[in-house]
User: Which sequence fits this backbone?
């Protein structure tokens, strides 16, 4: 236990002063009783049996004053509390195809809007990271509880290059692990990327926002196997329309359309979910699928109110007993 204002403990000096004053008053009362006894007036047996009652209210008063004085010193205790925690990485496809306007105003802006709504609704116990992937991938923001930082990172995203879903998943897993991961390419090239052990992160998830048009050799399905083995679900959000549109890139007209089958397969491998949306409601349901786990977290708690409350209750009890037994407050 620590004290925020230890100098206020000087108020505890009032306790021995009150005890001394009370002792002096009781001594005077005893002297008067002795004089009455010398004149033949003695206490009745009933008075002797209830004599201890005179001291109980005062004992409650003194204890209450001591507690209130101690409360003013702002005592703080470290309490271990169970808390649910989870990590969600928002992995944004920032390839040139995300400039397409089959979602208004563009695919990337629709994805940003949906993600911002998702971030705003999350509790503080959820850490949110941001990853951007095109030909390669980068962690824009490590998982954080600061919603302002997360929102700012999302708004800064811009588009360029091709699409590597595999790189996006790899970098997202690194963000969840909190360190760069070293993956054995020969293991990834085997029948199942699930043979690659990166640890277990069962209270984490990746929200993959993409049109699904993969242009990289790094197999996203093998990375999905790795995520599944690590307990990380991938919730894919299809950004775009299956009918598609044409986007102009460096003077060339390029046809682009939503590849829902690829995104659906990635989600299925990890027991995640797939949805097609240009707004926040689809992302709102992703949080419900994040398997949160309880962790014991030590947090300081100021106990001023608790000590003051106990002191007030003792004062009330002392006053009540004093009135009931003596007809007045001591």
Assistant:
């Amino acid at each position: 236990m620590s004290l925020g204002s230890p100098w206020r403990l000087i108020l505890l000096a009032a306790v021995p002063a009150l005890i001394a004053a009370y002792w002096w008053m009781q001594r005077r009362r005893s002297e008067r009783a002795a004089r009455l006894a010398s004149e033949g007036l003695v206490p009745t047996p009933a008075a002797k049996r209830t004599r201890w009652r005179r001291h109980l209210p005062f004992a409650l008063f003194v204890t209450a004053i001591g507690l209130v004085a101690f409360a003013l010193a702002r005592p703080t205790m470290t309490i271990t509390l169970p808390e649910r925690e989870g990590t969600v990485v928002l992995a944004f496809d920032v390839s040139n195809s995300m400039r397409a306007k089959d979602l208004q105003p563009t695919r990337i802006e629709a994805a940003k809007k949906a993600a911002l709504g998702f971030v705003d609704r999350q509790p503080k116990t959820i850490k949110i990271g941001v990853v951007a992937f095109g030909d390669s991938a980068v962690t824009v923001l490590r998982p954080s509880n600061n919603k302002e930082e997360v929102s700012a990172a999302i708004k800064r995203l811009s588009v360029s290059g091709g699409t590597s879903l595999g790189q996006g998943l790899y970098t997202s897993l690194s963000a969840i692990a909190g360190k760069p991961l070293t993956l054995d390419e020969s293991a990834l090239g085997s029948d199942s990327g699930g043979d690659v052990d990166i640890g277990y992160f069962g209270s984490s998830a990746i929200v993959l926002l993409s049109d699904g048009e993969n242009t990289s050799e790094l197999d996203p399905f093998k990375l999905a196997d790795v995520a599944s083995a690590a307990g990380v679900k991938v919730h894919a959000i299809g950004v775009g329309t299956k009918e598609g549109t044409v986007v102009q890139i460096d003077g060339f007209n390029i046809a682009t359309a939503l590849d829902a089958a690829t995104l659906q397969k990635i989600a299925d491998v990890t027991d995640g979910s797939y949805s097609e949306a240009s707004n926040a409601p689809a992302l709102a349901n992703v949080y419900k699928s994040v398997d949160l786990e309880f962790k014991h977290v030590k947090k300081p708690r100021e106990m001023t109110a608790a000590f003051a409350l106990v002191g007030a209750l003792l004062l009330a009890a002392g006053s009540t007993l004093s009135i009931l037994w003596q007809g007045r407050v001591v």
Remarks:
- The domain at 94-291 is CATH 3.40.50.410 (Rossmann fold).
- The beta strands are 2-3, 75-93, 126-133, 137-144, 204-210, 233-238, 245-249, 252-256, 274-276, 293-302.
